[in-house]
Amino acid sequence: WLVIDRKVYDASRFSKQHPGGSRVISHYAGQDATDAFVAFHNDKSLVKKYLRSLLIGELAPDQPSFESNKKKSLLEDFRELRCTVEKMGLLRPNYFFFFLVFLHLLVLDAASWLVIWYFGVSLVPFLAGMAFFTVAQIQMGWFQHDLGHCSVFRKPRWNRLLQIVVINVLKGLPASWWNHLHNQHHAKPNCFRKDPDLNMHPLLFSLGKSLSVEVSTGMFGKGDLTAETY
């Protein structure tokens, strides 16, 4: 069970069919997933149609719609900030900008091979080609990152198709693997055993006075989450 906008949903079966993977949903089992739901779904009206069949009730009036380890005032401030940013149009993509990004990384990638092909494999051409190739690969990584977030095109399908071209074809990595890990990272950032980035680089992400905390949650039963069922 999980909560979105104070409504309780049973996603036990649906989680296996979830396009973003079952782990993203399981990370919010028994918790309020409102903010994650808003962040992950651009077309919320479409997604809510699928939620109707999963609705089993809503929170009781005295039940808080946020986790006990979070500050209500802080959550409200961030939600208000997000609404302001959306109303200002700051999340609308600039297609010409992304076109130039895609064009320049293609040029750099082609230049890296042409330099070696034309000038040979001596030291200077090799270093120049390596520099072009390295910059192109880094830029491809960030570009496919935006595509993976569905931040370039309005329709997720176009984002997915171009992401496959960039990361699968040009970089040689599977987009499904990256999306599976990165969705979990944004679902539970900096939480041990939830954020895959921490599992891969525990020392790098755990430096500082305040360490990341482990959030342990399981699938809640009917007695664990107060609800008023319809």
Automatic annotation (TrEMBL):
**In its UniProt record, which GO terms are filed under biological process?**
unsaturated fatty acid biosynthetic process
Q: Where is the Cytochrome b5 heme-binding domain?
A: 1-60
Transmembrane feature ranges: 89-108, 114-135
A single GO molecular-function term is: oxidoreductase activity, acting on paired donors, with oxidation of a pair of donors resulting in the reduction of molecular oxygen to two molecules of water
Specify the protein name: FADS1 desaturase
> Where is it found, in Gene Ontology cellular component terms?
membrane
Q: What is the lineage of its organism?
A: Eukaryota, Metazoa, Chordata, Craniata, Vertebrata
Q: Which SMART domains match?
A: Cyt-b5
Query: Which controlled-vocabulary keywords does the entry list?
Result: Fatty acid biosynthesis, Fatty acid metabolism, Lipid biosynthesis, Lipid metabolism, Membrane, Transmembrane, Transmembrane helix
Q: Which Pfam families match?
A: Cyt-b5, FA_desaturase
Recorded hits in InterPro entries, A to Z, give: Cyt_B5-like_heme/steroid-bd, Cyt_B5-like_heme/steroid_sf, FA_desaturase_dom, Fatty_acid_desaturase
Q: What superkingdom does the record give?
A: Eukaryota
Q: PANTHER family annotated for this entry?
A: CYTOCHROME B5 HEME-BINDING DOMAIN-CONTAINING PROTEIN, FATTY ACID DESATURASE 2
Task: Look up the record and name the pathway of this protein.
Answer: Lipid metabolism; polyunsaturated fatty acid biosynthesis
The protein's organism comes out as: Mionectes macconnelli
